[in-house]
User: What shape does this take?
Amino acid sequence: MSTPSSPRVPPHIPLHSPLHIIDLIRKKRDGGSLDEREIGFLAAGAADGSIPPEQLSAWLMAAFLRGLTLDETRALTLAMRDSGERFSPVRLGKVAVDKHSTGGVGDKTSFLVAPIAAACGLCVPMISGRALGHTGGTLDKLEAIPGLRTALALTEFERVLEKCGASIVSQTPLLVPADRVLYALRDRTGTVESPGLICASILSKKLAAGLDALVLDVKTGSGAFLRDRKEAEYLAALMVATAEAAGTRTVALLTDMGQPLGRCAGNWIELVEAVELLRGQRNPESEDLRELSLLLAGWMVHLGGQAATPELGYARAEAALADGSALRVFFSMIEAQGGDIRVFDEPIGFHRPGATQVVEAWESGFISAMETTALGWAVQRLGAGREKAGEPVDPHAGIEFHARQGARVEKGQPIATLYATRADLLAEPAALLKQAIHFSKSPPQAVPLVSRIFTRATAETHLRKCGF
Ligand code: URA
Assistant: This one.
């Protein structure tokens, strides 16, 4: 019934008139904003198949070209989160924290931060992805361990979390089905690189895991999806503000992906590098990986309430590496997911690439720049990634770098070793690597590993500055 303060609705229009997808496409196409009910209709129609792919694709292109408002982004994130089943870690009685990276080359921080945070008393329900474009996938790397399963039902996921404190699994078919449909369409319609759509896609999956806190690692530089720094900053601020509005304490670190992270990029060899660090072994070429992992874990420990500041969180994270507790969590998680940890007794012996090639420096000087996207493609084409969805990947393919940006090298010095499935797969990646690494006479300017941190307050200020 109408009251004097309620909006006047013409009597011939029902208060909740039915929605039609064609109206929502036209509205977005013409620059309008969809309300919560309209966004909810769209996400539900994507999830249950009642809106056909051609109309979803048309709406995605309109959203890509017109952009989404903050309210639309928030509404889409929540509607996608609620489009399927959700995981609740409440029964486990611990604060649930996770880390998400926007993707890079050699990025294996998950294998360090998940066990470190669990060793510090937190619960880490990590739902991860596979290799995408030039970037590697956490699940593909983990599945290099014989027997290890990542497709766990939610009940088994919960059992592993209860026993080990951390579990790394794939998205179940019932978790965020709207994203499964929309993401596949975005991939085929050139609508991936939209901040609002990326934000809703990533956060819907993270929020469906029932997180109390989230640390985002937003990559910038030559190997990042969003290479433009301003775009990366906007995405970071948008994700922090959106997740905070949904009740999850969130920070975003803007980190350098101007060169591969650590010295290995591939599947098995990345695990080996992570386990070396978990065992307390140090290598100058892996120091950036160690430092970034401790910074991210420090924030997880702080947001999870186990340290008063991120700096104290860092110290706790470092202690969990030093006393072996993070390594014990990692191995218990691998075993609980069916993996055979004996392969780590002799990790080099288990590494059996089909073909190997050492690449030597072709001139003397400083390594001044690395085109990291090209290096990522080289890794994928050695056999570590797939051409088509569903193809198997080679656990032993990849690149080990022997020199990093800023290093002084002499002509003829080995700078990388390529590991391929077969000898005929070596030539193209070797050529890509040669085009991607540049030399200079003087040392390049050092790039900070973390260039900016967005908290709730700084994210909101940044969005206001961007005109929102
Ligand atoms: N990863 C996701 O899950 N979604 C995106 O849109 C981009 C990266």
